[in-house]
Amino acid sequence: MNEQGGRLPVEIDSTVAHEARVYDYWLGGKDNFAADRALGDAIAEHIPTIKTMARANRAFVGRAVRYLVQECGIRQFLDIGTGIPTSGNVHEVAQSAEPSSRVVYVDNDPIVLAHARALMTSTDEGATRFIFADLHDPDSILSDPALAETLDLTQPTAVMLVAVLMYFRENSEVEQVLGKLVDAVSSGSYLTITHPTADFDPEAMAGVVASAQQSGIPFQPRGQDEVAALFEGMDLVEPGVAPVLAWRPDPEPSGITKLHPEHEVDPRSAYYWAAMARKR
């Protein structure tokens, strides 16, 4: 049962790979099963550095949240597709910079739900909540009482969609979902997206798509222009749609940049685009 008394589907099918658990495996977590590891390894055959890329993507979250709190004055976050909790969650980063920050997480994996209840704490000044829902049904997110109890969408809010939109095959469906989410938040809110791409290595990404589809998981990489189009009508934050490693990188090397300390790492070596934009 959830906090509002509704019944939640908590069955876990360990024989079928799930996106959140595959990502957990790449990040070195322990909340994954053989099917998840098999898909993770199959993808790694095409992109041997996929685990390091996942860490680079995770590091982006920290940079983006710090920027939103410190430079944009954001105090509210809606993080959809949050995944299994690990160090550097949105609320940890946000509340370390501003203790009053409030965060709502959304995911559709029962394992994420179990960990969210146990691990997601908050400062006294702020708040964190979890909604068990699917991004394919944005209305179920926006109408959940936990959202209204935690966030005031009449005030600027950061909507975080990190490594999640590739599970939508059709651009039209992505546009519909984003339209509902952006319409629901106030002017001055921000949308943050990372998205895998075939722009940097088409052959390798084709192998990833095939492996995911064989496991029953839709996977749709998108090009730079397609990612830019997701922010239509919004004002992109510099540096615009950039490789995830090149989006406001930290001065000190970390993650994938430690693979080759003897020379500068090509930012296109992590196959993700990253961008953030402000709602007018």
UniProtKB/TrEMBL annotation:
UniProt-recorded name of the protein: SAM-dependent methyltransferase
Signal peptide boundaries: none
Lineage, highest ranks first: Bacteria, Bacillati, Actinomycetota, Actinomycetes, Pseudonocardiales
Keyword Nucleotide-binding listed: no
InterPro entries registered for this protein in UniProt: SAM-dependent_MTases_sf, SAM_dep_MeTrfase_SAV2177_type
GO biological process: methylation
Keywords for the protein's UniProt record, in alphabetical order: Methyltransferase, Transferase
Pfam families: Methyltransf_19
SUPFAM superfamilies: S-adenosyl-L-methionine-dependent methyltransferases
GO molecular function: methyltransferase activity
Membrane-spanning segments: none
